[in-house]
Design a protein that fits this description.
Elements lengths: L12 H12 L5 H8 L3 H12 L25 H21 L1
Helix pairs in contact: 2-3
């Protein structure tokens, strides 16, 4: 599980393809590839496992949809929202008085 503030490495398609070729076709151990490329053995084995399952490991499929929205989307016109709420309160008060 990821820890708060943890940084994740991303590797280019070329590097992934090269490492997987050496690991799967040339039978170079993951420990030696880790020393050569600086990629953890577990990551190399995960890529190989996913590749064997038929998944495309060369492309990064992560989605960044959770969490706080970017600042540009977070802009809110509070004055406009306040005016809308005031009108809605007047509407609700009128509805209560009709009953």
């Amino acid at each position: 599980m990821a820890k708060k503030g943890q940084k994740f490495n991303s590797y280019s398609e070329e590097v992934k393809a090269e490492v997987l070729k050496k690991y799967l076709e040339e039978y170079i151990p993951s420990s030696r590839l880790e020393e050569e490329y600086g990629i953890p053995q577990k990551t190399i084995r995960n890529w190989a496992g996913k590749l064997k399952q038929g998944k495309d490991v060369l492309v990064d499929h992560r989605q960044f949809s959770s969490g706080r929205p970017p600042k540009d989307e977070d802009k809110i016109d509070y004055k406009e929202r306040y005016e809308i709420l005031k009108k809605y309160q007047v509407f609700l008060k009128a509805q209560r008085e009709k009953k």
